[in-house]
Sequence to fold (320 residues):
Amino acid sequence: MCKNSRYFAAVRTASHLFILALCAWGAGALFPGTCLAEDIATLDGKKYESVRDVKPMRDRIVFSYGPESDPGRTTVLFRNLPLDLQKKYGYDPFEVALYNARADSPISLTLNSAYRLSSLDAAKKKAQAEKKLLGFIMVWDMMFRPASRPMGTGGPNDLAGFYSVFNNALVLVFVRHEDELDKVPDAVKKGFFGPEEGGWAPNMAVVSADCSQFVCEIPLGGEHSTGAVREPIFRQKIAVIKKFLENPEAFAPKPVQQTNTESATVEPAKAETNEGDIIPGQRLESIRKIPQETRRLYGGIAIGVLVLVLVLVRVFRRKG
Fold:
């Protein structure tokens, strides 16, 4: 009898340890942010290790970092974070910009506040690096004056409205109406000379990062446009932009058609991989990027197994 008692005691101890392990696994799967610290590297080169207690706000995140014995706490703007972290913490640059525009704070713009056609290659490079689209804004020289209001009416205020809403979400290029309209890429011309241009400047043509695809044209909204008039127009076009960005090939380089000449460049042969092959580093990245839905599934399975083990232990005890 004593032997059986020791046996049952050992079984109970093992079952308790197993239940604790399942609890930890389930909690980690369902609430990964509360259990696992991470490192954050910002776009300006700073790195924060053992990040935890992250609090997302409208345009930034606040978090603790460093060792538990001597932690630090800091704030980082979303626009200074990589795109994957922006998405992870629910950042929407368009909503933040619309909110800020409604504050109607005065801003002073010059032709150098955005890229110019003369620096289009640099604008493309920035757009491709940051996974953003290009926004070409048609402007007149008279639109640049100090203290323009994003919610106001009239050329300078209209331009302030476009700039405030789209400057962080897109890479902007100013195009002078006076002498540059015929120099824009073909994709931009589809907007500037298309049916939605509206006949009033400023207006904006949105194209892909390499200027190969036209996305949409954003009109001013009439001669007496105000911030209240422009916002629903902006929202409608932002929905078009977001839908385009959902396409996984939105930033894929457009293939260049080769001419049938002797000087055509020969592409180097690529190593073939079967569908089931694992490229070096792929397995680790796939583990790191487990979707939240999958983590919840694993957590649910863990809790289900936990309940089953508890029932079996109680039944086992009664028989003992």
Residues 258-289 have pLDDT under 50 and may be disordered. The first strand starts at residue 38 and ends at 41. The chain has ten helices and nine strands. The domain at 93-245 is CATH 3.40.30.10 (Glutaredoxin).
